[in-house]
Specification:
heterodimer; A: about 250 residues; alpha/beta; Rossmann fold; four-stranded parallel beta sheet; globular; B: about 500 residues; six-stranded parallel beta sheet; four-stranded mixed beta sheet
């Protein structure tokens, strides 16, 4: 099976180790991974800040970059939700505003082929034990767009629970937003930090060594708060845990 | 809408104060988490909740689509039942109608049932200016009124107050409005409720005029419905000689049977009860039973303009349950006052900028007062996609666009002060739309990684005031792929 990796701009520029982990994990499971170079950002920051027209070129770019792939896999619930939920909406609005049907057609063609990593593993590959080894105590924060927009449900926790040596502890108030919210983090910094501090306090109280998530943008916010506070709690993307094995542990 | 909140600072500044108020934070956290958990249990009891939710949405959408028809049907039914219907295009007209009706009775005081519509119009202030005293009779509204305060929640307007604060307000203020608080009043909830009961009883027995809102109006029968918990509503709706109800035009439903949906979804969503203690329904007037005169003031105040917007109009489905406030992580930290509107929380963030427009600083900031986490949409009993409307209104603020004002389609320009943000978004998009430039930018960052500052200047401070910046990698994913796998496809 051949898939295209949509690494996302945040992972490309700031968290390449997450993208590398996805490649290693998928290849270990027998999947051939391509990285279409024309990809960049899904346009979520522009769209969610109210600049829909500025988003349109990125919708077009993303749709064209992944044309022809049956499966497009991305390690971000938020970016997957952007493409699946909002691209068709952006396309329809462009058509309604008299800019033709091309964007709507591109968006409609891409949306159903995009999979968030845990969806692809559980639903398409049909695995929950990916053969990973990670001998640490981990708590999991389900980011909002994966949780509510995509309905990922217990897929991430099933994958984590099957990791050898991993002790999964429940995060109290897990379903509450961490306060990142894209540009919300800088437009409403006080509320954002207050929400994030409650989240990191709940995570620290579980006694876990690792706060795991499936969206690095949320984790960047939480990691920033933890490091500023000098906390030993470490944030990690789910893909990096799933990529770790006894022979090739996480460095 | 009322001028009370104009000149409010934008949401981020108002929220900053609230976040630093530890007492407020604790009051709100306790209250919202309690009601949030109770609601989840009350909703889980109903196996057909999703169908009730879909049915409520469908009834509201159908009614809004044919609002002209149902409002005329309602007027006819109310008139046939002995009531008088008045039409108010805006807050001022509604206040004028009510003031004139009260003055015509010769009375100079009245009792009020908790009503969002009259808060929206600023009726109490308008009545006061005309020499009419309006007494709030809902316990929490009484606390707010006695405390010269503003409501901070749709259903529990004094949610920001704890019982010690309430005791102090009762002790200091009750005497100035009527029966004083009993000597040595403590902060036991039962004692506080008893003090309120004694204070209010006097008002109920004396009042000749009452003002209410309504949760629903039934077009086919002309019946109005009020849901409440304390019995103060029943007193106001039955004892006085004249009843004046001010109701938003979106509150109409076609048939009596439609109430079966909302009688289930509203109490469970708002107070987490299977059924609220008091549901009062009345149809016009009845000889020898209840008020002899009934006036219905139908309020537009921006609703028809909101209805003209295909995305934004879903906000008019709202039944004011406040489930979205109770589940909102931003409301929980910022409190209701930061929203600068009688409608706080997620619903307020999409309703106020539509009813009032996005011209003021506070209204332009409200669509951004959300992380778009979607918890509000999940709990909404009429399935308002609040995140969708928030993004839609952000577009209105950021890039301008078509909007209806006083029935006329106009094109809004981007809100004031968005030029820098617009330029930054455009620059980011241009960079992201040119992977060659993006790669060059990433390499530049990688070379500068050792210089990673602890504090950024300018707008970047909003991140680094509380958070470290992520450590920059030695190479981007793109470069790793090229190095490991050769030229990408």
């Amino acid at each position: 099976m051949r898939v295209a990796l949509f690494v996302t701009c945040v992972n490309d520029a700031l968290y390449p180790r997450t993208g590398i982990a996805v490649v290693r994990l998928l290849e270990r499971l027998g999947v051939t991974v391509d990285f279409p170079a024309a990809q960049s950002c899904c346009g979520q920051p522009q769209y969610n800040t109210g600049f829909r027209h500025e988003t349109e070129p990125l919708v077009r770019r993303t749709a064209e970059a992944f044309a022809g792939y049956e499966y497009v896999v991305t390690p971000s619930g938020s970016c997957a939700a952007m493409i699946r939920e909002h691209y068709p909406r952006i396309g329809r609005k462009a058509a309604a505003e008299g800019r033709g049907d091309a964007l709507a057609e591109l968006a409609a063609a891409l949306a159903p082929r995009v999979y968030e990593l845990t969806e692809f593993l559980v639903d398409v590959l049909g695995v929950s034990d990916v053969g990973a080894h990670f001998p640490h105590t981990v708590t999991y924060h389900p980011s909002c767009h994966g949780l509510r927009a995509l309905g990922l449900g217990d897929r991430p926790r099933r994958l984590l629970a099957a990791v050898k040596g991993l002790d999964l502890v429940e995060l109290p108030g897990a379903e509450e937003c961490c306060g990142f919210g894209g540009t919300f983090a800088v437009k409403n910094p006080d509320v954002s930090a207050a929400m994030g501090t409650d989240k990191t306090a709940a995570a620290a109280a579980t006694g876990a060594e690792v706060l795991c998530g499936a969206d690095n943008s949320c984790l960047a916010h939480l990691e920033g708060l933890l490091r500023r506070a000098g906390s030993p709690l470490r944030t990690l993307h789910l893909a990096e845990i799933l990529a770790a094995t006894e022979r090739e542990p996480l460095r | 809408m009322t001028a009370t909140h104009l000149g409010m600072p934008a949401f981020p500044a108002a929220a900053r104060e609230a976040v630093r108020d530890d007492v407020l934070r604790a009051n709100l956290r306790r209250a919202t988490h309690t009601i949030r958990d109770k609601r989840a249990r009350a909703v889980a009891e109903l196996a057909d909740w999703d169908r009730l939710r879909a049915a409520g949405k469908a009834v509201k959408d159908h009614t809004l689509r044919h609002l002209d028809h149902y409002l005329l049907q309602l007027e006819e039914a109310v008139t046939a039942a002995g009531g008088t219907v008045h039409w108010a295009a805006d807050a001022d007209e509604a206040n004028r109608i009510v003031t004139d009706l009260v003055l015509a009775t010769g009375e100079r005081e009245l009792v009020k049932v908790k009503s969002m519509a009259t808060q929206e119009t600023g009726l109490n202030e308008a009545l006061e200016a005309a020499g009419i005293a309006a007494y709030e009779t809902d316990l929490a509204e009484l606390i707010v009124q006695l405390g010269h305060d503003r409501p901070s929640h749709i259903l529990v307007p004094a949610i920001h107050r704890n019982r010690a604060e309430i005791r102090d307000v009762f002790r200091a203020e009750m005497g100035g409005w009527g029966r004083p608080a009993p000597d040595g009043l403590g902060d036991d909830p039962r004692e506080l409720a008893e003090a309120a009961r004694l204070h209010l009883r006097e008002k109920f027995l004396r009042a000749k005029v009452a003002v209410s809102g309504a949760n629903f109006m039934v077009a086919e029968t002309g019946t109005l419905v009020v849901f409440e918990s304390e019995g103060n509503g029943r007193m106001c709706l039955t004892l006085p000689e004249t009843l004046i109800s001010v109701v938003g035009i979106e509150k109409v439903v076609p048939t009596f049977r439609d109430l079966e949906i909302f009688l289930q979804t509203l109490p469970r969503s708002s107070t987490a009860e299977r059924m609220n203690p008091y549901t009062t329904m009345w149809t016009g007037t009845t000889d020898g039973d209840g008020p002899a005169a009934f006036h219905l003031v139908l309020l537009d105040n921006g609703r028809t303009d909101t209805l003209a917007d295909e995305v934004g109009r879903q906000a008019l489905r709202c039944i004011r349950c406040s489930a979205c406030l109770n589940v909102c992580p931003v409301y929980e930290r910022a409190g209701g006052h930061a929203y600068g509107s009688v409608y706080p929380g997620p619903i307020g963030a999409i309703l106020s900028p539509q009813l009032r427009g996005t011209d003021s600083e506070i209204d332009a900031s409200l669509p951004y007062a959300s992380t778009l986490c979607g918890a509000c949409y999940d709990v909404c009993p009429v399935a308002i996609d609040i995140p969708e409307v928030l993004v839609h209104l952000r577009e209105r603020v950021a890039q301008g666009g078509p909007v209806t004002r006083d029935g006329i389609r106009v094109r809004l320009r981007p809100a004031h002060g968005r030029t820098a943000e617009r330029a930054a978004m455009r620059a980011a998009r241009l960079l992201l739309d040119h992977p060659g430039a993006l790669r060059a930018g990433e390499r530049l960052l990688a070379r500068a990684r050792r210089m990673r500052p602890r504090r950024l200047p300018g707008p970047g401070r909003a991140w680094t005031d509380t958070r470290e910046l992520p450590e920059l990698p030695a190479e981007s994913f793109r470069d790793w792929w090229t190095r490991e796998r050769g030229t990408p496809q």
